Amino acid sequence: MVLQVKSDYIHMQPSTLASATAQAPSNIAFVKYWGKTDHDLTLPQNPSISMSLDSLYTTTTVTFSDSYTQDEVWIAAPNEPSQQVTGTKATRVIQQLDRIRQLNSESRRAKVESVNNFPSGVGIASSASAFAALTLATTTALNMTLTPTELSRLTRLGGSGSATRSIFGGYVEWLTGDDQSSVAQQLFPESYWQLSDVIAIISTAEKKVSSLEGHELAETSPFYQTRLTDLPRRLKVVRHALEQRDITLLGAELEPEALSLHTVAMTCVPPVFYPMTETFWLLDELRAWSKEGVEVYGTMDAGPNVHCICQKSDAEKIKEKLNQLPYVQQVLVAHAGGGARIV
Length: 343
Ligand code: PMV
Description:
Structural class: alpha+beta
Largest sheet: 8 strands, mixed
Bound molecules: (3R)-3-hydroxy-3-methyl-5-(phosphonooxy)pentanoic acid
Distance between the termini: 51 Å
Shape: globular
Number of strands: 14
Strand content: 25-35%
């Protein structure tokens, strides 16, 4: 007798599911990484120091199932429907899944569902929070127990260097080194000093040159070596300023540091222009406000928007002042916050 198996019975067979959800913060670098010693392993030319941001984060659920025939990546912005992404964005996520699957001899395909709590397309990079959340959710779904240090190394391999720092909360340094030693470490927890990042959105346009390309071009600038030569001094001052909770000392390094990165970018071959005219107008404005007594210091990532760093007690005042500038489209406020966690 031939046993007939009904096809809908087959579909009802329980598949082996493994799932986890993680949340990771975005961060703003006080001393930035720009340029790599190894592009495949994402090893940075210089150490960098950042602050993790409490109100800008990505929440990612990774689900492995026998029933999936291929990996899928879905991304949503707040109050917007989730969209399936393809192309380079999806490839980078799937490569990170592959890397982790390989460590665990895992063959199941996965569905990745990622939500940013900050509006998409406002010119704030979400790759730091996204890759940190992805790595934590994937390793947890597969029951891997990693220390935060191991997790930061694995996150680094995903290709978004700044994500390495987003594993930790508070004030974080990402070290140079080889594949094993180039990891992030917490310098001070967020409770040690409450600083704020009041972000002035000047442009919401997608950048024309990705930071991935920017890192590759860095060495073509005649000013790159000058930047690297000065960085050990700057790192020392920033570490000391954090330790002393000295906003004046810290602030004095922030704008020059951002301008040093952008000088390198603008003098690469071909040149890369991230700031806009309004970026420089705003930096002028911030210098004037500091002189008037509200200490606030500007810095930029690979984009035109200005991150205004100030004491938490001044954040609302700075937000009001920024909202009065005609070229500022939107203001977001974030404070020093915790690191990546399972939710
Ligand atoms: O995180 P990546 O690899 O996309 O590079 C971004 C680098 C900067 O944001 C410009 C600086 C930094 O250290 O965050």
